[in-house]
Every structure is written in C-alpha cells, then in structure tokens.
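Action item from last meeting closed. Structure (404 res):
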C-alpha cells in the first residue's frame, strides 16, 4: 500500500516580506532581522505578534516576533510550524538537556543554573534562571512576554516535581515603548525559601527586589577561579552586589575581604551570605559606598582586586562614554593595587567588544605606569551558551592580570 507523502502544515501567520538580498542572514541562521531589511508588513500588526518571514521571491524563511525598534523581528523558528505548547516544551526540554549534559542541573552541590539563555538557546528575548526549585523568568521582548502562560506550562511539564514556583521578573526589561506595563509576580506556586547552593556555598537570592533575576549566575566559573588565587591575600571586591566573589575568596583562604557596593540592600545581603557560610568570621567587612570614592581613598593595602561593574554601555551610541568609564575605573585599580597583585576586571556590556575592552585596560595600565601581564581571558559559563550564528551573544568579557 502506497503511503501519501506528508508535507509540513501551512501556518498562516501574518506576513513580513524582506527586501531583495536581505534573506542571506536568515539562511545563515542569524536570529535577528533589522528594520532596514524589511520591505512590507501586513496591516494591523501589533508589537509582539508572531509573523512569518518571506523573501522578496515569496520564499518562506522563518517565524518570529515583530517588534518596534532597530531589531524588527526576533526569530524563534526556522521551520514552518505552529508555535504552541508543544513547541515551548520541546525548546525548554532541549535547553534542560544541555544543562544536564554539562553537569549543571541536578547535582548535589549546585541547584542553580541558567536554564534558558535567549539567542543561545534559540529563544531570543527570553531568560530563565533556576534557583533551588524556583524558575525566574525575564522577558526582554513583548513577544516573549505574551507567551508567559505557555512558557510556565512548559516549565511545569519539563521540570515536573523539581519545579516549585515560577516568578516573572519582566517589569524592568520590557521595552518602554511597547505600551505594556508589566508587574513582577508569581505565575505558578510561591516560594518561601530564597537560599540556593553554588559549588557548595550558600547564598541568598532576592528575585523579588534584587538586580537581574536575583544573582549573577554568569560569574560562577570566574568566582571559582578567584578562589584559587585568594590564599593569603587581602581582597577588595568592588561592585560586590550580594558578595559572590567575597565568600569564594574567604573559602580560598584570604587574609581579609572587603566588599563594596553603593546599594545598602546589596551590602545587607552580602553580610547575610558571608555569615551563612562563615559564621562569626572577622576577616570580612562590607561598605555601602560609591566605588570610585572608596578606591580613591583606599590606599595600597590590597593585593587582589575585583572590578565587576554594572554594564557601562547598553547601546552602541554610548560606547565611547562606557570605554572612558572602564579606563577611569581600571586606572584607579592599577594605581592602588600592591606590587605583585592580581586584578580580576570585567565588562558585561554587550556593546563593548573584547578588543575594545582590552584596549581600554591597556590604556589604563599605561596611564598608571604599571607592568601588567594577562593570566586569563574570561567569558560567560556554559549555561550561558553562545549561538554560533549569533556571536553578539558573547557579552561577558574578563581579564585576570598580574600587576608588578
């Protein structure tokens, strides 16, 4: 008996047509379409709607979310398929499988990981961090925000009994021009515990009021590296947030650790984290103070300094000001660190390239007149994967420097 050949189901999403020749980036699987590449858009579309992309020759290319701004469409599928609950389950299952494969899910001394990393997991505009049973969602596009219900259902299906709650923290990440006024809150369940475990160390996660999703998971491997350089050193952790580098330094055998952040709430949590891991330990002090002012008056008493500031540049149009900020900050660091000291310095600005960052650090070292050698070049960990077709996803840059 002859079986009929099955063809993909035709999905009638509103149509976006590209200008001639503008389909090449999609055929190379880049997940963004810029507004300048668009020729025609069906009438009546609203930001966040699902659309089907077609070439000027009426060839189907991909499905994505339409948006206001320079990035006109963020692609979530290169297949002609329906974006339904099964789609979200499949994508989140794939993301989870990667975390299991690299040993960052379900291990005894780690119950924290980034479960979905935007373009790196084929879901532009969606971040999901997993903290000891709570999935914290951040939507960076209206399209993803409109799918929160399905994403929550998919998380329940994929994670099962390991999922206790889902918290939406998109209030500060949805584009302000969208007209949507999101409110942070639980989409499923509720959590009373805010304590998680990373490499055997306990830390409090404030996903209700803290920065990002509550903790900077992307520095896990760099914190672990710092631990190995900390023995016998006097450590200064600038922009400490909730003290991640600080308690790794303490476990590494630092003589003293000083944590500095302008946020009084961050300093409060830092003290709680240190106390949870090293109760009564007098090696640690924390200061709620401006980083530049603290460095200026600190003197030369530290031989291990961490400079991990918030993003100085979120857009290309402020790149030069950001580079000046990195130069100023690192110049002071080079002036203050002891001879033979080690400096961990970072940029989490996607708009700042690795080359730009290194040039800024080079200029800082030269202006301070120090001899500096690079020991390590750092980036984000494996649960923050970079899509090979989207190199822009490598946002975290870091250098470990030996300063004479």
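Sequence:
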């Amino acid at each position: 008996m002859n079986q009929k050949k099955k063809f993909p189901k035709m999905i009638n999403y509103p149509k976006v047509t590209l200008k001639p020749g503008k389909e090449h980036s999609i055929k190379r699987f880049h997940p963004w379409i810029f507004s300048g590449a668009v020729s025609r858009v069906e009438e009546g579309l609203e930001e966040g709607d699902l659309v089907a992309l077609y070439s000027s020759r009426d060839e189907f290319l991909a499905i994505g979310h339409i948006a206001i701004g320079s990035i006109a469409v963020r692609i979530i599928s290169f297949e002609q398929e329906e974006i339904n609950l099964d789609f979200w389950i499949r994508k989140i299952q794939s993301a989870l499988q990667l975390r299991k494969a690299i040993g960052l899910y379900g291990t005894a001394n780690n119950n924290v990981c980034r479960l979905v990393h935007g373009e790196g997991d084929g879901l532009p505009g969606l971040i999901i961090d997993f903290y000891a049973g709570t999935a914290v969602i951040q939507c960076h596009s209206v399209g993803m925000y409109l799918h929160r219900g399905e994403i929550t259902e998919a998380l329940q299906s994929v994670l099962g009994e390991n999922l206790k709650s889902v918290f939406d923290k998109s209030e500060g990440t949805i584009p302000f021009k969208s007209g949507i006024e999101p409110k942070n809150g639980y989409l499923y369940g509720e959590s009373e515990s805010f304590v998680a475990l990373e490499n055997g160390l306990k830390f409090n996660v404030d996903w209700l009021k803290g920065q990002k999703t509550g903790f900077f998971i992307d520095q896990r491997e760099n914190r672990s590296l710092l631990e190995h350089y900390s023995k016998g050193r006097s450590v200064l952790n600038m922009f400490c947030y909730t003290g991640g580098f600080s308690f790794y330094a303490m476990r590494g055998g630092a003589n003293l650790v000083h944590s500095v952040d302008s946020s009084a709430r961050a300093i409060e949590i830092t003290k709680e984290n240190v106390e949870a891991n090293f109760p009564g330990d007098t090696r640690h002090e924390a200061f709620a103070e401006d980083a530049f002012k603290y460095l200026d008056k600190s003197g030369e008493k530290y031989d291990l300094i961490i400079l991990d500031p918030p993003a100085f540049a979120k857009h290309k149009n402020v790149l030069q000001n950001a580079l000046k900020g990195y130069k100023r900050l690192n110049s002071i660091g080079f002036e203050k660190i002891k001879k033979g000291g080690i400096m961990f310095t970072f940029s989490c600005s996607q708009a700042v390239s690795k080359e730009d960052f290194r040039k800024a650090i080079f200029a800082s070292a030269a202006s301070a007149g120090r001899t500096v050698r690079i020991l390590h070049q750092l980036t984000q960990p494996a649960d923050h994967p970079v899509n090979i077709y989207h190199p822009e996803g490598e946002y975290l840059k870091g250098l470990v420097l030996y300063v004479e």
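Note appended to the action item: The domain at 85-197 is CATH 3.30.750.80 (Transcription Regulator spoIIAA).
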